[in-house]
Amino acid sequence: MGSKNKLKRFKDNETFANVIQPTREDVLEGFKYKGNWASFFGNDNPIVLELGCGKGEYTVGLAQINPDKNHIGIDIKGARFWRGAKTALEEKLDNVAFLRTQIELVDHLFGKGEVSEIWITFPDPQIKYKRTKHRMTNPVFLERYKKILKPGGLINLKTDSEYMHGYTLGLLQGLGHEILYANHDVYKNEGAPSEVLEIQTFYENQYLENGKPITYIQFRIN
C-alpha cells in the first residue's frame, strides 16, 4: 500500500463514526468506554470482539449474521481495518466498531464480564521461542481475556497455522480449560459453528486455493 493511500485512509478513519483511536495514555488512565460500551452503541446487546482484525472482514461478517450483537474489531493498523469500517458504514451496520490500539491493553478497554465472545482469526503464530510473549493464546493473554469475558464466555481461534493450533490445544489441556470443539481441517470435517464456515477472509481464500487446511478451536477459560 502506497504512503499516500495510507495517509488518505488515516484521514478517513478520523471522520468515521465507527472508528475509535485512543492514545495509549487514554487507555491506561481510564478509557471512557470501559464498562460503558452501551453508551457507544446505544444498547446493551452482547459484545463480540475480533482481536487482530486486519481488514475487518470477520468483524463485518459476524455483524451481518448477528445483528442482535455488537461487534468490535481491534487492531493497531488502522490502514488495514479502514476497509471493514468503510464497508460497515456503507451497509449501515450500526452494530460495528473498530478500535485502533494494542491488543495487550484489552483488559483496560472493557470492564469485568463486559464481553460475551472473542474471535482470534489468523494471528501471527510467533513461532520463535523468544516471541512466545506475543502469542495471542499464551497464559498471560488468556488471563487478560478472562478478566473481560462474562462467565461462560467463548473464545474462538481460527488459523492456518498447525503450530498455533497445536500449541493452543496443548496449553488449554494442560491448564484445564474447557475445549468445546477442536478440528485440524474445518472444511473437511463436520461440527464447526456456521460462522467458521460462512465467513472467509481474503487470505483464508488464498490458503484454501492452495489446499492449506484451516484449523479451529472453540473454548472457555475456567
From TrEMBL:
<comment type="pathway">
    <text>tRNA modification; N(7)-methylguanine-tRNA biosynthesis.</text>
</comment>
<dbReference type="InterPro" id="IPR003358">
    <property type="entry name" value="tRNA_(Gua-N-7)_MeTrfase_Trmb"/>
</dbReference>
<comment type="function">
    <text>Catalyzes the formation of N(7)-methylguanine at position 46 (m7G46) in tRNA.</text>
</comment>
<feature type="binding site">
    <location>
        <position position="75"/>
    </location>
    <ligand>
        <name>S-adenosyl-L-methionine</name>
    </ligand>
</feature>
<protein>
    <recommendedName>
        <fullName>tRNA (guanine-N(7)-)-methyltransferase</fullName>
        <ecNumber>2.1.1.33</ecNumber>
    </recommendedName>
</protein>
<feature type="binding site">
    <location>
        <position position="50"/>
    </location>
    <ligand>
        <name>S-adenosyl-L-methionine</name>
    </ligand>
</feature>
<feature type="binding site">
    <location>
        <position position="160"/>
    </location>
    <ligand>
        <name>substrate</name>
    </ligand>
</feature>
<keyword id="KW-0808">Transferase</keyword>
<feature type="binding site">
    <location>
        <position position="128"/>
    </location>
    <ligand>
        <name>substrate</name>
    </ligand>
</feature>
<dbReference type="InterPro" id="IPR029063">
    <property type="entry name" value="SAM-dependent_MTases_sf"/>
</dbReference>
<dbReference type="GO" id="GO:0008176">
    <property type="term" value="F:tRNA (guanine(46)-N7)-methyltransferase activity"/>
</dbReference>
<dbReference type="InterPro" id="IPR055361">
    <property type="entry name" value="tRNA_methyltr_TrmB_bact"/>
</dbReference>
<feature type="binding site">
    <location>
        <position position="124"/>
    </location>
    <ligand>
        <name>S-adenosyl-L-methionine</name>
    </ligand>
</feature>
<dbReference type="Pfam" id="PF02390">
    <property type="entry name" value="Methyltransf_4"/>
</dbReference>
<keyword id="KW-0819">tRNA processing</keyword>
<feature type="binding site">
    <location>
        <begin position="201"/>
        <end position="204"/>
    </location>
    <ligand>
        <name>substrate</name>
    </ligand>
</feature>
<keyword id="KW-0949">S-adenosyl-L-methionine</keyword>
<comment type="similarity">
    <text>Belongs to the class I-like SAM-binding methyltransferase superfamily. TrmB family.</text>
</comment>
<keyword id="KW-0489">Methyltransferase</keyword>
